[in-house]
Batch of 3 targets.
Target 1
Amino acid sequence: MRTEIVLFDKKEDCCGCGSCMNVCPKSAISMQEDEFGYKYPAIDTNLCVGCGLCQKACAFQNGKVEHEPLLTFAASARKGEILRKSSSGGLFAVLAGKTLSENGAVFGAAYDEQLQVRHICIESAGQLPALQGSKYVQSDTGNTFSQVKKMLREGRKVLYSGTPCQIAGLYGYLGGDQENLTTIDLICHGVPNGRMFGDYLKSLGNVERFTFRDKSIGWGISGTSLVDGKTVKIWESASPYVYYFSKGMIHRDSCYQCRYACKNRPADITLGDFWGIEKQHPEFLKVFRHECGISAVIVNSEKGKRFLRDCQGELVLKKSEFGKVQAGNTQLRQPSALSPKRAEILALYRDGGWEAVEKRFNENIGLHRYSSQIKSYIPASVKSVLKKVKH
Ligand SMILES: Cc1cc2nc3c(=O)[nH]c(=O)nc-3n(C[C@H](O)[C@H](O)[C@H](O)COP(=O)(O)OP(=O)(O)OC[C@H]3O[C@@H](n4cnc5c(N)ncnc54)[C@H](O)[C@@H]3O)c2cc1C
């Protein structure tokens, strides 16, 4: 008799990485939206043969991360052009550029024509800007894990970047590390879903371009959007989507139980923002331009060490310590806290659509709506002094 496969009992046990879907030899698994728009694997029992490969590939439930941080740096790209297009210190673009220059392939998250976020593969430097910049929504990995396997079999070098659960999912799918594969995981706050993001965009008008983080506003979580031909600022405190994201109120269930929100990271290299650098390394503020973004780089493997060493000519690198990055980045200590308001917001979304969520936001936000905008008028040098005083 065929074994009935159960992929997860509770929603928080599935991170939606798509490893099970990619590994299924019968294409019996597809990713389906739940009532709120978060995607979960669904098994077509007519196609399933009960082989159990999908359960074995699930790193979120089975995987154990052995890595410990080996080295930690504050860093930024040397080239202004890279820094301008990147959300943080531009490390990803430098590492990706190195891979591309060696005829390798790079996988990362890009907007598609409908401004939905998907993982894609790029093979030339001209395509790199599509992957640059943080998109604060769960990226659909599609069949990229299978693509990676094929490229590795052909002897190509591959760099794959994603959230830690996506990287762990990739290793789960591949059955372990591979010589020509290098990975980057991002320090991750959590992910809302694509349907919600799409509905938010519709509420803005005809959106041609959306950037979560725009350095012309400073190094922070405010961006710009091109709506009906006009550039519109997306202030963190005035945007219901960005505000509820940054307060951790609309993440996927598994994000609140994230097993990678700690020092044991699945990728060769971890990248994030070096929040709190003013306090941890005031001496570095003479070396980096604060307003251009400063990355935290955590090297987790010997392969990661070699890779970073090969890129050092393109980077400003200053040695730091894991604890100093962790001090300003909760996501390296524990997952985002489950807000009691999340259930209310999700129920409003399910029953009344994005309009109902926006209505709630407008009724509650008050004068706080202007706080990101006001902060943006304070010069970066004054802000870093204020931050030091605050700490
Ligand atoms: C959902 C999310 C939450 C984050 N939360 C934090 C946090 O709490 N603290 C922190 O320090 N840093 C966080 N980051 C990381 C930070 O925003 C920067 O992405 C990171 O510092 C790399 O910056 P960069 O300048 O090197 O590259 P950038 O050019 O800014 O980023 C490009 C890289 O990000 C990847 N990427 C973009 N969007 C996504 C996505 N939706 N899913 C998977 N990969 C994506 C691209 O594939 C590419 O590899 C988060 C990123 C994401 C996507």
Target 2
Amino acid sequence: MRSKAIKLLAFRREIQDRLALTEDENAENTSLVLAAHALKKTKTWILAHGDYELQDKEINTLQNYMTKYLQGVPLPYILGSWAFFNRTFKVTPDVLIPRPETELLVEKAIAFGQEKDSLTIVDVGTGSGIIAISLAASLNHASVYALDISNAALAVAKENAKNHQQSRIMFVQSDLLSPFRGRFDLICANLPYIPSQKMEKLPVARWEPRLALDGGASGLESIEKLLFQAKSRLAPGACILLEIESSLGTQALEIAHLTFPGAKHHLIQDLAGHDRVLQILLS
Ligand SMILES: C[S@@+](CC[C@H](N)C(=O)[O-])C[C@H]1O[C@@H](n2cnc3c(N)ncnc32)[C@H](O)[C@@H]1O
């Protein structure tokens, strides 16, 4: 039995002090997010109930979260979910953590899809399913395929599709487009694009699946292979949208020119002004 009740605000301050020692710039927000998750309340509730007396179970949960956080486990893996394009998606260490930059690709894909009466879309390397699910939810007239080489990632994506009532997405385990013979109107992909030699120096490489990050020696190996496969799998007027590593824009554009000489190619910049999406538009 506890001799003295621990109040929520006091405990959050303790967490913040420990985080501040690690020079965590988001200590206040992190303590808020962890507390909201541990207590299954909103952040507003946590802010408004500093006097709430924590139960032993809640203290244990929060201490467990803190231990993981201080070990460096990314917040989304501790919480088991993360927000993307106004929805919350389940995430596990089998999938890449959704990045805000990927919303740019989704916005461009929706804009393309809205101009068509019907279309077939494929999300190559779906991971947690964020691209396929966001597109299926916004484009009711589209047939959507989502593929990944990783069965573990596909299991997470399927669960996310179920949670967001997107039952019409067809999930397929495959190495890029190898088993597909059909013609797609829109190919979207956020494939691994970090050059192998950069991987070792990146903190993310410690936690996120290598399969989701390592783009081979050039960083463009999967993208190049996908573009080559796509040549025989596109409908007239089709579009390809690929997320790229910002420093590889010029090389990615060159590959696009070589593979689709008659098409229009653009690099689209993210909010920070970095090259982020390669768009290829067939005539
Ligand atoms: C960078 S993650 C992107 C995940 C998700 N689309 C997103 O944007 O968060 C790349 C994904 O591609 C998958 N992948 C890697 N190589 C692949 C291949 N040859 N064929 C199919 N999927 C592949 C990985 O398993 C991983 O889920």
Target 3
Amino acid sequence: MIITIASFKGGVGKTTTAVHLASHFAQKSSTVLIDGDPNRSATGWAKRGKLPFTVIDERVAAKQARNFEHIIIDTQARPEEEDLKSLVEGCDLLVIPSTPDALSLDAMIQTVQALKTLGADTYKILLTVIPPKPSTDGQQAREMLAQAGLPLFKTSIRRLAAFQKAALQGVPVYEVADARAKEGWKDYQAAGKEVSNASTK
Ligand SMILES: Nc1ncnc2c1ncn2[C@@H]1O[C@H](COP(=O)(O)OP(=O)(O)O)[C@@H](O)[C@H]1O
Ligand SMILES: [Mg+2]
């Protein structure tokens, strides 16, 4: 399965999502993460520590990725509408992370509507960095997206400091010594299961 992670803004959790979906699939089968962001954040993450899968540069992907069962592709932010079409066509599922703030949601919804016109149905929005109660941002974002009729992961990813520690230490969140690290891993495990279910439909 080929899963691409893309978004219209930086800093919405793309690389964090790519690393943790790859960690999820690596539990069962051979998995590779293709680093398609010129910033090479996923490559840096892997270099700082140890990840349970291989991270490869996009420039060697054509040669190396064919040996793996699951391919996760991290990308840079800000695809144009046209890029979006190619992104969707180039994978089995396009995962679009978004934080729950109204402004970035608005921009994302506009662009993603274009996918509907293309008849693409192999993409799904993942709400990330959701603040804890009493904030209702996550719930509001969910309602806004439902109203726009856009496909959305049932799982949202909570805002947890453990994710930042994981990036710094170069490991998946479950390796971090943090009281709430397990919750972060639970969120991505649930999202990973949804990805598998989406692919068998
Ligand atoms: N669920 C989360 N909770 C807290 N911080 C997060 C979460 N997801 C990502 N971050 C942090 O937000 C920043 C941007 O995340 P990153 O995955 O690099 O986004 P992108 O690849 O879209 O630029 C990083 O500092 C990362 O550690
Ligand atoms: Mg990134």
